[in-house]
Amino acid sequence: MNTKMNKKLTKAKEDHSLQGVCGGLAEYLGWSSFRVRLVFSILTFISGFIPGIIVYAILSILMPMPHEEDGFDLNRFRVQ
Length: 80
Known about the structure:
Layout: H1 21-29, H2 33-47, H3 50-62
């Protein structure tokens, strides 16, 4: 099955607590935002907090707002 995904990874349109990163990931993955936040919190706790905080900060800088046209397209990093 060779279907091209046209989803764009952006910050959350409505469901955002801090920067909208987890909400945006939830929209992209089709998960609930609670699930994404729970997984992110667990991974951050297990990793010793600093790596999780750094990843969140990088994502909050890289992920565009939902109204921006181009968005951050993960498909450009796929190996085909």
